[in-house]
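sorry for the late reply, my laptop died twice this morning and i had to redo everyting from scratch. anyway the thing you sent over, i finally got around to it. pasting the sequence first so we're on the same page, its 137 residues, then the predicted structure underneath. double check i copied it right bc i was rushing
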Amino acid sequence: MAKLSDLKIDSAAVNDGVWVEIEQVPGLKIRTRGYTDQFVDAQNRRLAQAAEKFRNDVTRIPNSVRRQLNAGLLTEFLLLDVDGLYSDDAETQKVGIEDFKALLASPDYGRLARACWEAASLVASGAAQQAEDAVGN
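ok and here's the structure:
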């Protein structure tokens, strides 16, 4: 039987952000917000604006344009910090948040962008908090 509490999310975590461990990349943690109202509003505006060049059909927006649009949305509205990512094999040079954000528009770092979307989705659904609580038990 379903309980109302099973459907409740932590809106403070969505708005303020939480650390999310990325399973596919051991050691990588991303501090991100969930899908805030500001993010959704900006996403809708930017998609509509981009679609104007394609007969107002968002399905016709090329992937390269969407990648740039999505990278901007991630960097402006969702991503707060990163930890556990290094630019060298010796793991002495940490990648900071600004360098991290700069990588997201590159097709070479599509896996990194997907990890960011997954992290934001986990925060939005409350799964990130559930995982953190499980580790504490």
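Residues 38 and 93 are 33 Å apart (CA to CA).
thats about all i looked at so far, will dig more tmrw
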